[in-house]
Write a structure and sequence with these properties.
By secondary structure, the chain is an alpha/beta fold. It is built from 11 helices and 12 strands. The structure holds NADP nicotinamide-adenine-dinucleotide phosphate. One of its GO terms (molecular function) is hydroxypyruvate reductase [NAD(P)H] activity.
């Protein structure tokens, strides 16, 4: 079974792929362009793609040999799943493996944004710190505050639990379907949530429905001291509207792990002090990248052995 692995993976995962499959590895560690995606779909039995690979509708318009896209990652917004399925491919992903690490990054961003950690570190590194003072760099207190989670799935719930058990926060959430939760949290409509919380965490998938779910109108509903944290996908937020809101001080701050046109980050965003910017670190630990790779391998094995795929999308 010929498998194309589109990006460098951890040593453990690459070793297993080499041992068990006729695996080929792209030599440059950058997203696969559309023409490469078309070639790959015509050449390999399965592809192990990831974030940014151009598996949009046009990729599936030519000859297709592949039968499986075993995606590395839970988000599949770089794949036109409907077009893939119409062309006879199955698509799988790696849910669960990413949950805790991404929730940890959400809390990292929430705390950094609230407590002005990036701004303070920049000041110190510039040599501008003149010493402790009672009114220096006062940030927002986190313990006991209200958290709004948008998208109460795996990551949303992991964030909510951290916030509730670790920081005594009151959790409010907006989700598509009713949830049965084993910790206290109150459902609310999106607009009511935005207007009533101190921190908002976005944990929805990127879909046509969630594109620019947070734009100027939604940001205007947030309290002037409230912070927006995005660990979902960049295009869930209208980045231009966010820059305007942050520049005008209409919200307290933002913490971002994802961007609309990664890896391009607007200079206007970089110039702002009241935003914390991470380079899409959500799942970036060795253990988690191993676990994600092993889930993709499990899907490849199931496909090879003709048994049900563990993680179909
Ligand atoms: P999940 O378990 O499927 O949770 C997503 C939640 O969003 C679900 O509860 C879903 O509602 C809800 N939702 C979907 N569309 C919605 C809408 N229009 N309005 C309100 N809620 C909506 O997925 P997950 O594992 O938590 O991952 C969520 C996303 O995080 C991924 O798709 C990925 O893009 C992103 N992610 C980012 C990183 C990173 O490195 N920063 C890492 C991992 C994942 P239902 O329960 O009704 O389906």
């Amino acid at each position: 079974m010929r498998v194309l692995v589109t990006r460098a993976l951890t040593r453990r995962v690459e070793t297993i792929l080499r041992e068990e499959f006729d695996a080929e590895f792209r030599t440059h560690d950058a997203p696969m362009a559309l023409s490469e995606a078309q070639d790959a779909l015509a050449t390999y039995d399965a592809i192990l793609p990831t974030l940014g690979d151009a598996l949009r509708a046009e990729a599936f318009s030519g000859p297709i040999r592949a039968k499986l896209l075993a995606n590395f990652g839970v988000g599949v917004n770089h794949i036109d799943v409907a077009a893939a399925k119409a062309a006879g491919l199955a698509v799988t992903n790696t849910p669960g493996a990413v949950t805790d690490a991404t929730a940890d990054i959400a809390m990292t961003l929430l705390l950094m944004s609230a407590r002005r950690a990036s701004e303070g570190e920049r000041m110190l590194r510039r040599g501008d710190w003149t010493g402790w003072a009672p009114t220096q760099m006062l940030g927002a207190h986190v313990t006991g505050k209200r958290l709004g989670v948008i998208g109460m799935g795996r990551i949303g719930q992991a964030v909510a639990k951290r916030a509730h058990y670790g920081f005594g926060m009151q959790v409010i959430y907006a989700s598509r379907s009713p949830k049965t939760l084993d910790f206290p949290a109150r459902p609310a409509a999106l607009r009511d949530l935005l207007a009533s919380v101190d921190f908002v965490v976005l944990a929805v998938p990127a879909t046509p429905e969630t594109r620019h779910m947070i734009g100027a109108a939604e940001l205007a509903l947030m309290a002037p001291h409230a912070h927006l944290i995005n660990v979902a996908r960049g295009d869930v937020v209208d980045e231009a509207a966010l820059i305007e809101a942050l520049t005008a001080g209409r919200i307290g701050g933002a913490g971002l792990d994802v961007y609309e046109r990664e890896p391009s980050v607007p200079p206007a965003l970089i110039a702002l002090e009241n935003v914390t910017l991470l380079p899409h670190l959500g799942t970036a630990t060795e253990e988690v990248r191993d676990a994600m790779g092993m889930m993709a391998v499990a899907n490849l094995r199931a496909f090879r052995d003709g048994i049900p795929l563990p993680n179909p999308v």
